[in-house]
Design brief:
Number of helices: 33
Distance between the termini: 37 Å
Helix content: 40-55%
Strand order of the largest sheet: 3-5-6-7-4-8
Shape: globular
Strand content: 5-15%
Oligomer: single chain
Radius of gyration: 31 Å
Number of strands: 12
């Protein structure tokens, strides 16, 4: 098992670590985590992320244990009892809205097992979400995590009903129990109402069915009382709350007309109730009134309906509302321009119309926007912009394609909203999740071709939707589909998403997407983006073992030249081995190769595979030249480079890119000093009688003879003679 010990690399210093000598003058300066071992041959488990403090506080301090009839909800206690009986994997199945996730977290948070190696001491588990990073759960090879003292929660509720082989899938999860037992850890699987084979005596034994749920109004109250006391102190949940009028006097009637207590509904979903409590806290902190709080509880339905009723005959005002939502933070004049763009209103208004029309501030105020003359904002109404978008999307469905087209125009390279792509991405992601509709994602393809800001927005939008329990699987499937499609825009967007958080949360699926993009016939901009994304993944020391193992597996599995994956695998190898600022993958791999023969063998095999593809000759030469420069700059270990390349030369010395690198190209008058220096290192190493020559590999016996003549005496057209 090979391992890399990372070291701290600073400009001008030597790199200290496991591989001995390092050159100075590091232009590819990188700060790596000291002492971090990277095991390149170990398969990595599925990614996890910690359960947040907000989540744990909710289930520990604001738990609601009874249903609307006052009966105990048995889900969490039953799961806890099963875990306490040393069941290491428990499944919670049932319809959405029954608090399955909260019940699983509650049980895991209350469990106090005696962990291995603690002398029988009972400790609280560290809680983590497991991310379902697979293309096909029944077919893909993946490891479930099993760190010591963990309480894992895996949500497959959005896909369990679509499993092709539920029995095999269930056995896979339940079969992880023994591994968890050895590590003192537990797993709770959240399944949908259908899909898990509960009728099977063995597979159904560990299932707890969620039937009843806590009332939403009671959850909201408990969260406010225990987690957001500042809201409770406002008295908004009392039956009658006098609200001061404009003169500061209390108006009891107005308070009685809008109590929150009567608006909280028992049928609210548990997650929505918890979110509502947090949003009320934000309104309270911002100085909001009880009217604002009331509208928030109603999800702005009344206020949005009122605005739409009052603007029924004014397309101008409705367009202004949409523009204010999308361009929040910009000035009133820019918002007005955005509205006119939506209406395609290019005509010039007469002076009479301008002078007799309503002023812009009045129009903005009528649609609930605030304006100080410098910027338009809805900060006083959290959640209102999203409610407006939902209303347009649902009630005026014919506007949907026009709305998407307008957003693309707004966010173009010179558009009014080009600086707000991230915020617009969040709005569209929330709209897609709220409506269970992937059509808002259509803007991502345009953004992917719109430079850095657009690519960042596209990645943010798709990564956010890809994580949604209900819509995520469909979004991830779409990403893989785009990666395999001919249009460059589709392939580019898939590669772009893999540059962001998606690659850290779903690295297996990201690598699948990148493989499809890297297999495109031409090395177009989509391929370039995919190569950059792969380098970024390899630069993450946590992901590097998975990336390196996957690329090596591709090289072995895809040997037929007519298979697009054949080209993809070899492009992937070259992309990883290309030294780049901030991407120390090549540095880590070559340092590892000095101490571990298996890594050196993998590097030689990869080079041999890449050099065998005529279409990659220029790219191979480009990477070899980059290696020479990186050796000169101190970014790559010279000994490791010479050792690996000598093996590669032995097997591929007649290959075009390699012979060009060693002997030069006819008609070329200038060769960079870094290439000259590396050639000299290779020649000296080959002819050093104190060092053994690289051993033959694959029964090859031919050996190149490297002349020790100075570079100035080398004939660019000279052939390398056979040593025999």
């Amino acid at each position: 098992m090979s391992a890399v010990t990372s070291a701290t690399v600073l400009p001008g210093n030597r790199l200290s670590g496991s591989s001995g000598n390092r050159a100075a003058n590091l232009t590819y300066s990188t700060l790596l985590q000291a002492g971090r071992d990277i095991n390149l041959q170990q398969q990595e488990p599925l990614s996890t992320e910690p359960v947040t403090k907000t989540e744990t506080d909710a289930v520990r301090h604001a738990w609601v244990a009874e249903d609307s009839e006052g009966k105990e909800i048995a889900t969490a206690p039953t799961v806890l009892a099963m875990l306490g009986r040393d069941e290491r994997v428990v499944v919670i199945a049932g319809p959405s809205g029954t608090g399955k996730t909260a019940a699983g977290l509650r049980a895991l948070s209350e469990l106090r097992p005696a962990l291995p190696g603690t002398g029988g001491q009972r400790l609280r588990l560290r809680l983590e979400h497991v991310l379902p990073d697979w293309d096909f759960v029944e077919k893909d090879k993946f490891l479930l995590p099993a760190e010591q003292g963990r309480g894992y929660l895996l949500d497959v509720s959005g896909e369990s009903a679509r499993w092709e082989k539920p029995d095999a899938t269930a056995r896979r999860f339940l079969g992880h129990a023994e591994t968890l037992r050895r590590r003192g850890s537990y797993l709770v699987v959240i399944a949908g109402e259908h899909g898990w084979p509960e009728n099977d005596p063995d597979l159904g034994r560990n299932v707890v069915r969620a039937v009843s749920r806590p009332p939403g109004d009671r959850i909201a109250r408990r969260h406010i009382e225990q987690l957001h006391p500042q809201v409770a102190r406002r008295g908004w949940l009392q039956e009658s709350v006098p609200e001061p009028d404009e003169r500061g006097d209390a108006d009891d009637d107005r308070g009685r007309r809008s109590p929150l207590a009567g608006l909280l509904r028992a049928d609210m979903q548990p997650g929505d109730a918890a979110t509502l409590a947090a949003e009320l806290s934000r309104i309270s902190e911002s100085g909001g009134t009880i009217k604002d709080a009331r509208d928030l509880v109603l999800r702005w339905r009344e206020r949005v309906s009122t605005v739409f009723r009052e603007t029924q005959d004014s397309a101008d005002d409705r367009a202004l509302l949409l523009a204010a939502v999308m361009l929040e933070g910009l000035g009133p004049a820019e918002v007005l321009s955005g509205a006119r763009l939506l209406l395609k209103d290019q005509k010039t208004r007469g002076i009479r119309d301008i002078l007799t029309g309503r002023d812009l501030a009045t129009r903005l105020n009528a649609v609930q926007a605030k304006s100080d003359g410098q910027r338009v904002t809805f900060s006083h109404l959290p959640g209102y912009p999203a409610a407006v978008l939902r209303h347009f999307w649902r009630q005026l469905s014919d506007v949907q394609p026009k709305l998407i087209s307008w957003v693309k125009q707004l966010t173009g390279p010179k558009g009014l909203g080009c600086g707000r792509i991230r915020e617009i991405a969040d709005l569209l992601a929330q709209l897609a999740v709220d409506e269970g509709d992937l059509r808002p994602l259509d803007v991502a393809q345009t953004w992917a071709a719109a430079g850095d800001a657009g690519q960042d927005g596209a990645a943010r939008l798709l990564a956010r939707v890809a994580r949604d329990p209900a819509l995520g699987q469909e979004a991830r499937t779409r990403l893989r589909s785009w990666a395999d499609q001919e249009p460059r825009a589709n392939a580019t967007i898939s590669a772009v998403v893999c540059q962001g958080s998606f690659s850290k949360e779903y690295p297996r699926q990201a690598l699948t997407c990148l493989r499809w993009v890297l297999g495109r016939p031409e090395r177009d901009s989509a391929v370039s983006v995919a190569e950059e994304a792969l380098r970024a993944m390899g630069a993450d020391t946590r992901l590097l073992p998975r990336v390196w193992d996957t690329v090596n597996r591709w090289l072995v599995e895809y040997e037929q030249p007519d298979d697009r994956n054949h080209l993809a695998a070899r492009r992937a190898f070259l992309a990883l081995l290309h030294p780049a600022a901030g991407h120390p993958t090549a540095t880590l791999l070559l340092a590892n190769a000095l101490d571990h023969a298996d890594t050196a063998d993998e590097l030689v095999r990869g080079w041999s595979a890449a050099l065998s593809v005529p279409a990659l000759e220029s790219q191979c030469e480009e990477v070899l030249t980059a290696w020479a420069k990186a050796v000169a700059d101190g970014a790559l270990d010279a000994d490791a480079v010479v050792e690996v390349l000598n093996h590669v030369i032995r097997e591929n010395w007649m290959t075009g890119p390699l012979s060009t690198f060693i002997a030069g190209r006819a008609g070329t008058e200038y060769t960079s000093q870094s290439v000259v220096d590396l050639r000299e290192r290779l020649i000296l190493r080959w002819n050093d009688t104190r060092q053994p020559h690289p051993k033959p590999r694959n029964d090859q016996t031919a050996q190149p003879h490297l002349s020790a003549r100075p570079e100035a005496d080398l004939d660019p057209c000279a052939e390398i003679e056979d040593e025999a």
